Amino acid sequence: MVTIALRAPNGQSRIQIDDESTLADLLSLIKSKTELEKFTLKYGYPLKNLDIAPQAQGVSIKDLKLRGETIVVAPTETASPTPPPPPAASQPEPFKPKAMEPDETSLEWPERGGYIVLRVMPDDNSCMFTAVGGALGLANPSRVLRDQIASYILSHPDTYTKAILGDTPTTYVSRMLETDTWGGAIELSILSDIYNIEISSLDVKSLRVDRFGEGKDERIVIVYSGIHYDRIAFAMDLGYPLEVDVTKWSTADDEILIKAKELAQRLQRMHYYTDTTDFVIKCEICNWIGQGMKDAGKHEKETGHREFGEMTIQ
């Protein structure tokens, strides 16, 4: 039997096939495993295409020499036609990191035949939930994770008290369920417990890694830049869709943290972070002005206002 590793939109897996089987048999097995009908296959280092044209499907697995290989499965299904989007003027501008260029959000990792990539999250007050939920493979992550966190807090009243939350559990949960409320360390700790996974949060300014859920078997890696969270992923090819990103690693694999720090150092040099201790912040609702996240949190508790912007002092 020949063992082959698969990387596909529905995750990583291993398959076994008799070496006397044909490529057609392998394609049938991959379709069953990935639930994809149309795809391309790449393997080797550097990556090369595996010819899956009908005339090539009679070749034996033994002749293809795929033993021990990792095959990347990239879907080629075209989406159903969708109506044209409304005029650009009526659409919100997509989030763009300050001073960032596309090739500055990735770092080649030749030893593993791919790239470490910063997947930038929308700047919509749900970036932490989107970063974590996307790494976990969830659809509509903000809504799903907010609901799960709320249930977890209310079902652990002895742990999540007013002293820990800074507010009564019911008030804290009510606020957390609103889509304009940020998530932070408390939420990361809870999500680590819910999903039994270590969440490694890499701070761009200090390059410190905060680990939520140490002792778990798997980890995901997110990047914190002061008031925003993004996600770290591994891509075999920068042209591949996000669905085939690798976003989970064994906690025994510290090389992923070393490589993520290399990328964070590049972000740090470009000042891709906000110093939350002394930056000047303005309330977009009442024009209140304060300094740092501590003041912003106090103002939010006093007024319920949650829309803040960073002010640039000339």
Describe the structure.
It is built from nine helices and 15 strands. It is α+β, with helices and mostly antiparallel strands and 314 residues long. Strands 6, 7, 8, 9, 10, 11 and 12 form a seven-stranded mixed sheet that branches. β6 and β7 (114-119) form a beta hairpin. α3 (127-136) packs across α4 (141-154) and α4 crosses α7. The longest helix has 15 residues, at 255-269.
Which stretches of 5+ consecutive residues score pLDDT under 50? 78-103
**Strand segment tally:** 15
Cα gyration radius (Å): 23 Å
What is the general shape? Answer: elongated
Lay out the secondary structure.
Elements: E1 2-8, E2 11-17, H1 23-34, E3 39-43, E4 48-49, H2 61-64, E5 70-75, E6 106-109, E7 114-119, H3 127-136, H4 141-154, H5 162-165, H6 169-176, H7 185-195, E8 198-203, E9 209-212, E10 218-224, E11 229-235, E12 249-250, H8 255-269, E13 280-283, E14 289-291, H9 292-303, E15 308-310
Parallel strand pairs: 1-5, 8-10
Antiparallel strand pairs: 1-2, 3-4, 3-5, 6-7, 7-11, 8-9, 10-11, 10-12, 13-14, 13-15
Helix pairs in contact: 3-4, 4-6, 4-7
Outline:
It is found in: Cytoplasm. This protein is 29% helix and 23% strand. The protein is α+β, with helices and mostly antiparallel strands.
Give structural attributes.
15 strands, single chain, 23% strand, seven-stranded mixed beta sheet, alpha+beta, zinc ion binding, five-stranded mixed beta sheet, 314 residues
